[in-house]
Amino acid sequence: MNIIISNSSDKPIYEQIATQIKKIIISGEVSPGDALPSMRFLAKELRISVITTKRAYSDLERDGFIETVAGKGSFVANQNLSFIREEQLRLAEEFLQKAVDTAKNSDITCKELKDMLEILYGGEEA
Amino acid sequence: MNIIISNSSDKPIYEQIATQIKKIIISGEVSPGDALPSMRFLAKELRISVITTKRAYSDLERDGFIETVAGKGSFVANQNLSFIREEQLRLAEEFLQKAVDTAKNSDITCKELKDMLEILYGGEEA
DNA sequence: CATAGTGTATATATACTATATATACACTAT
DNA sequence: ATAGTGTATATATAGTATATATACACTATG
């Protein structure tokens, strides 16, 4: 597992780590049950604090990508798709909220939004 | 022009002011060229700093709702209201599109989105 | 010009959030 | 016991958002 962090990046370290591990997991390079580098090991390798690697791993766990056991280590989770789905739901909801805020400020009705949504969704099969 | 601010709102004061004035303009209660309450007057009335009313007015000007002339005052912009609404519609549509893209990648149905939308819209009237 | 209205610029205070940390603690396997 | 593992607490630092006071500049009108 090859993680690279960059100081010149505008993204925080914990996010850089999490993003790279996410990609590795999604690409299938690693399998469910596989051990990840320990927080301590990764921290030492990257010369950062354990707490920062923990932050990355915690986020990954929250999003269902890995599982962590105190005293044992962190492991690639069973690709429990419903967890990942939940994350996508949250993301979608964020966008919807912004659309709603915009709409309310301009007397755009809920129905108008729903109609637009239907058109956008039905549009092209991606 | 009746502006109300609430300390218990989670929105900042300048945003509360801007939002209310936007609504008044969009609703047609005032016409292009009409004078808005002066920053100073409004500040005194609401017992807040001129700088806060200025912040609200600056935002409104940036978004094309009003025009401000130093030494004279602030006025409802000579604008095509339907154009502004169109702008807002397009903005909302952008957000919806992102929500749709996210959804489609995770088998989130159109109905799920619409249900979420309804909840978010009906939710809090800030 | 004097004046009283208007908006503007500068510098500042305060609170909140995000990021990252050190250190001490607790769990697990051998 | 020991050497791994993850965790909790308290803290430091930087950045951003919000709101302000005060002094300045523009505009109309006597």
TrEMBL record, chains A, B:
Residues 11-79 form the HTH gntR-type domain. SUPFAM superfamilies: Winged helix' DNA-binding domain (SSF46785). The keyword DNA repair does not apply. The keyword Hydrolase does not apply. InterPro entries: Tscrpt_reg_HTH_GntR, WH-like_DNA-bd_sf, WH_DNA-bd_sf. PROSITE patterns: HTH_GNTR. Keywords: DNA-binding, Transcription, Transcription regulation. It comes from the Bacteria. It comes from Acetobacterium tundrae. This is GntR family transcriptional regulator. CDD domains: WHTH_GntR. Gene3D superfamilies: Winged helix-like DNA-binding domain superfamily/Winged helix DNA-binding domain.
